[in-house]
Amino acid sequence: MDRQENLLAPDGSAGAGVAHAASAAKNKWRVAFTSSIGNLIEQYDFSIYGVAAALVFPKVFFPGLSSAAGILASFATFGVAFVARPLGGVLFGHLGDRLGRKKTLVATLVLMGVATTLIGVLPPASVLGAAAPIALIVLRVAQGLAAGGEWAGANLFAAEHAPVDERGRWAMFPQLGSAISFSLGNATFLLTGVGMSDEAFRTWGWRVPFIASALLVAIGLYIRLQIEETPVFRRAVADDGVLRTPFVEALKRQPRQILVGCGLGLMMGSFYYISATYLTSYASADLHLSRTAVLLAGMIGGLFVLFGALASGLLSDRIGRRTLLVGANATGVVWSLALFPILSLGGVFVFAICLCVTLFLSGFVSSPLGAFLPEQFRTRYRYTASAISYNMGALLGGSIPPLVAPALVGAFSPIALGAFLALYALIATACTRALKDGRKSSLSEV
To answer: What pTM was estimated for this model as a whole?
Structure first.
């Protein structure tokens, strides 16, 4: 039976059916918390790193470089994690398709938590010398490996627990975690820096959000250990067993879907991470806004990621993921070209508006994508295939724009960066149109 919520229990009795429905509702909220809190923690860790890379790391870990070179080096360490993400996708995708979604998601959470906490206690370059940025890169790679397995796993966990006609809403849960994390990361930095001098913030204040993530990991780990494996995965294992090499099977069976899937999240990733990194730096260095104003705008902007994810998640089961994704990405083309001319007007209000619109569009793509991508692949290698597609897209969309942004703006103008983002949104539109909308199909029958 496709639909999990069945008002009659297996014995057909109405009374038992009510209890069964109550149990199903309780399980739904457990799945919601499990998939969202893990993604919240993963993206919180990525978000605070992005903010720190823009505001702190150039002087803490690259003090011998010029201001521009320090920012570039700092953003390069941010991008290193995206290079590691596809490797993490293959590794944890393999484990997820062989050992199960639950065990793998526990592993990604622990790895991310340990790496992030260690960044928080890492001595600066003034103490460790060249070893400090090297250690930072190693820990950033560990973050990337963990993140490579998290998004696909969290979305599969939600989608494979969901009834067919509610899959879009259930796949919305992990995106809510990501949305909350953007505001949470900026809020943590904002509250940490209240009444603190810039020197104190650079010395120890920036470390607090990283160390505090250990508490979030403990909560997330407790919740994840309480939930059962997905019924779709259990059924696939019972019927067909597990594949020895899911990676090879995925590439052999569905290479086109994997390749095209790499482009689905280009606009979402580039908009999210250009907001977390370059726009934060741009507001501080070029628009001369205070650190408090920039972080407050980021905290508000994170709410618009949430609004976008909620709106599209509630609509995707009714309108269709493909339709929503095409519309949002096409809108992203236009907004990319308008973004920097509007930003050039200056002022904190204009910056906040631009940040909120950019993040809303990113959030609006996230929920339909969370269901749309898993619907393209078969259960036996769905984790691996989804992770490869998503993380290759994250590599291209999350690391390249922040890395090339200073060079593009320096060599040409901010409008050149806008054109670059528009190209990404255009590619995402074309890739979405090239794949089917599987909202009415059972994941067991893909």
So the answer is: 0.82
